[in-house]
Specification:
- By secondary structure, this protein is of the alpha/beta class.
- It has a single domain (4-271), classed as Aldolase class I (TIM Barrel).
- The chain contains 12 helices and 8 strands.
- It has an 8-stranded parallel beta barrel with strand order 1-2-3-4-5-6-7-8, surrounded by 9 helices.
- The longest helix has 22 residues, at 250-271.
Length: 274
């Protein structure tokens, strides 16, 4: 069993929701990644999603696409991402880590090698954005061998039949994409989110995390009323990038990131305190 199951069991028993920040490994350089990860945990993150830089991140909006570009320009790859994860694990063996990426780099390396490398580094779950559930059997076998969860995305346009197919293959948690389109776009309709989550829960008892559109404490608090976890991606990537591009340092960028996640953590706690 990965760290995800016990964490969600504890949170459920305490009527708490997980806060899950997302970052692109190596954005804008590898020296920032591990200190940033530690600061996010200190600010109240329960799980961290680590994006693997990819040349064609088709589900991402402009903010995260630029993060991928910066990381690739700095030379960050799947292997160096896992090396950063391993470095994080030297002083943190408790926080669950989820690797988020695209199928091409994983298929090139081979699922057996990917599962072994992820396990060695300390990864708990894998999200492969563009790998459909109909083609996941080989990967699932290797991930299960290493007790790594396979996490899937479900969107507002996913049919009920396809939700059933996805949830049958998934473990760890379900990632519900709250907005149509790419990350960082549009307005979050919390009534629609709640309705879709009810449909998903007819098919699975797995926790459901909501991402795409969580920008601040208010949106996170609203979503926490119906979700098991909130994912903060574009807002965090944008904050760090803006700080550094305006002359800030790693220290100031980390401080800003800590403030954002701390605010979201407090908002989520207040929303679920009753």
């Amino acid at each position: 069993m990965s760290r995800l199951g016990p964490l969600f069991n504890t949170l459920r028993a305490e009527n708490r929701r997980a806060v899950i920040p997302y970052l692109v490994a190596g954005d804008p350089d590898e020296a920032l990644t591990v200190p940033l990860m530690h600061s996010l945990v200190e600010a109240g993150a329960d799980i961290i999603e680590v994006g693997v830089p990819f040349s064609d991140p088709m589900s991402e909006g402009p903010t995260i696409q630029k993060g991928h570009e910066r990381a690739l320009e700095g030379g960050t790859s799947l292997l160096s991402t896992l090396a950063l994860v391993k470095q994080f694990r030297e002083t943190n063996t408790e926080t669950p880590l989820v690797l988020m990426g695209y199928a091409n780099p994983l298929e090139r390396k081979g699922y057996t090698a990917v599962a072994d490398a992820c396990a060695e580094a300390g990864i708990d779950g894998l999200i492969t954005v563009d790998l459909p559930p109909e083609e996941v059997a080989a990967m699932n076998a290797e991930l299960q061998r290493q007790n790594i969860d396979n996490i899937f995305l479900i969107s507002p346009t996913t049919s009920d039949e396809r939700v059933a197919t996805i949830t049958a293959q998934a473990s760890g948690f379900i990632y519900y994409v709250a907005l149509k389109g790419v990350t960082g776009a549009g307005h979050l309709d919390t009534d629609a989110v709640e309705a879709h989550l009810a449909t998903i829960r007819q098919h699975t008892s797995l926790p459901v995390a909501v991402g795409f559109g969580i920008k601040d404490a208010d949106t996170a608090a609203t979503v926490a009323g119906c979700a098991d976890a909130v994912v903060v991606g574009s807002a965090l990537v944008d904050l760090v990038a803006n700080d550094l591009s305006s002359g800030g340092s790693h220290t100031s960028a980390i401080s800003g990131a800590r403030s954002l996640i701390s605010s979201i953590r407090n908002g989520v706690n207040l929303a679920t305190s009753n």
